[in-house]
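Chain A, query sequence.
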Amino acid sequence: MKRERGFASDNNAGVHPDILNALTNANNGHAIAYGNDEYTHAATKQIKSLFDIEPEVYFVLTGTGANVLGIHMMGGSFNSVICAETAHINVDECGAPEKFTGMKIISIPTSNGKLTVQCILPQMHGIGFEHHSQPKIVSITQPTEVGTLYSPSEIKLLADFAHANNMYLHMDGARISNAVAALNISIDEITRKPGVDILSFGGTKNGMMYGEAVLFFNQQLATNFKYFRKQGMQLGSKMRYIGAQFSAFFKDDLWLKNASHANKMALLLEQKVKSIPNVKITQKAQANGVFAIIPKKLIPKLQDEYFFYVWDEETGEVRWMCSFDTTKEDVSEFASLLENFMKQN
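Chain A, predicted structure.
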């Protein structure tokens, strides 16, 4: 029988009690629909206050919706989006960016999930040639899908390169809270200041029930977004419930407390398993995920008790994600079980 909490995904965690309470409080009486309510207005103001120069803020229902609509505002169907091979928009969105924007996704293999100017350069050809899709967007994820982090200087290099080549920089920030907590700097310093044009700001993976936000630092790109959000089926009618969640999310820095805890649990897990024989850590745990290679035959045995995903079936690489509700006991018991299986192997 599987344990109450596993290590598969921070999406699998429940809703933080403070956010559930906020939803209950927002459930009293009527409120104007489609975002014209006090909760949405308050949450929008809170998000804007995180930045030295206020972005345009739009709430959406899902992370895929945030990414697809954000990318859509940056180019046309003849353009291309350059991203890491592991990017969520390339691997886990069922082709939605290509279906709904018409743009071509160009994925680049990386060893650590991070793009560099050097790895983008080979894709910068055929500019102005009508037979080739035209590069228009560089999309990065912070933290990356393998748990690594971009520094502000790395982001700035990518932004400067994109802008110098008439391109835009998009950031998938599904776990942006974990990045801010891990780097211990303001969100402004890893998004707007280095030159990100559009940010998908995630909440679902960090204690919210649902809801994400699309932030436009390049406000010209937000022109007509409200219409595209409606066409893209991402305009929630009872938006007060997203607004109420985000308000609770930011109250007393809950978003950073949740993310910091998840990050600490991942570091603890990494520390406990890296000394176990035949466990090879493949990426340094910089946020709330641990990536490791273990003997393939042990994976099903571990999964019988703890739900987690195999990242690479060929190598036996697995992904263990920690959440705001992961406990030290969860980590210790999992590591002990893995060690016992190794001894029996």
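The first strand starts at residue 56 and ends at 60. Residues 17-252 form a domain with the Aspartate Aminotransferase; domain 2 fold (CATH 3.40.640.10).
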